[in-house]
Sequence to fold (539 residues):
Amino acid sequence: MSNTLIVNVSPGQTRVALVENGVVAEVFHERAGGTGITGNIYKGRVVRVLPGMQAAFVDIGIERSGFLYVDDVGNDATTLPEGAAPVDGEEEDEPVREAPRLRAVDGGEEEAEKRERVPIEHQLTKGQEVVVQIAKGPIGTKGARVTTRLSLPGRMLVLMPHVDHVGVSRRIEDPEERTRLRELIQELRPPGVGIIVRTAAEGEDREALRTDIEVLIALWNDLVRKKEVARSPSLLFADLDLALRCIRDLLTHNLDRVVVDAMEEHDRIHAFATQVAPRLSHRVELYDGAEPIFDAFSVEDEINRALQPKVWLRSGGYLVIDRTEALTTIDVNTGRYVGRRNLDETFLKTNLEAVPEVVYQLRLRNVGGIIVIDFIDMEREEHREKVVRALEEALSRDRLRTVVHSMSDLGLVEMTRKRAKTSLLKTLTDSCPYCEGHGYVRSVATMGYDVVRDVMRAGRNVTHDSLGIHVHPQVADFLCGEGRALMEEAERLLAKHLVILPVSAYHVEDHDIIGVDTGLVPDGVIRAVSSNMDGGSDR
Fold:
């Protein structure tokens, strides 16, 4: 089956889905005014240096200052001088230590520069200007993480002006092709400048790679010129929007189709594809179906599924996925699956079935950071190793970097996945205004007892003969039913009439107690209005 990139354009929003072999693998969203900032480069100003944390905060002109850790500070953090571009075939006397204006050359040898960690207070001071790139976008209450180790992404290559290194994407698996690409880049790159070879470079010739380097160098030189005249804070470089970024990063020979549901966006994407990947531009096509494109490719159903905490497995087992501020937990359960042979085989089969679904959900939900998978506990060591190997194999096809640790005696596997973008849950949902994101509210019975305690406390401090108790209708039902004896006892101890007033607009945890004038309430009774009324009076 084919791999397809689906682009849905609607007013104020662009959505892109990657469908691999008929299965929705990844979903991306971008809304008007909410363009992602990861990858953007800013000229900022240090607003605070924290020696105790070996970090600094940098004002880059967005809502919260960026967080700059000492290991993300290079020797070239503060300046981007023009420098002198080396000429073809010549080596510089000194290694490239700053960020020069660059020109693509043939030849030149690597010159490694060793760097020891220098305390951040010896590198940065308050008020100092610094050029930084967003490494991780803001999440929740945390600001963006920034780095001075800049990189510029192209279609086939990534330029790293401050790093003397050549790397090849691990998704290019052929050893001969990896060697060929590495040798070509060693010849083409300017001395002292780092290049990472992306998956899209596989099979490309020398001229195509040289062109990509020249484009990136021109982009870098333009950034240097902007930095020289810009005030801080200001934006020096912004990455492409979602649709074009997906074409740049995902349109390879492994992608069979790009289907776009809007004529204007189709033309724009086709023109961009023609520029960056002319041999593949014919794969961009316009969707003309009557059914909404995300419905036609079953993407909408998968998005809704990805917002649910419970995911069922074919055997009857299930996963429970829970996101906290610090990490994501995934709990594997046997559910309705009872197995056929013995307990060990049942647990092993469920865990192995869970592995590909776990990896699929990580990609679909854009989950990054620390992840703890609670597999069903297995006594046999070989079964544990088999599950971990299966997990590592399934993750090997993930585009993002992952690290998996061995399974603990309790069946826990800790792993990390590079956080490249905001999770789907964060993108599409807000914290529940009812429970304020806790996931729980106090039970009706708990609230009933809380109300009784507050009535006793308030009754001793008011002079009125009666108290009006405004509560949620369900709490009112409890106080007039199961908790009636409690209210009668409170009424006896306080020598006051107690009037329960249900208010349907109240949160179940809300209640108010007010003094009521004598004569407004019939003697010796606890009354509650019908729970289908909006409250306010018992008459």
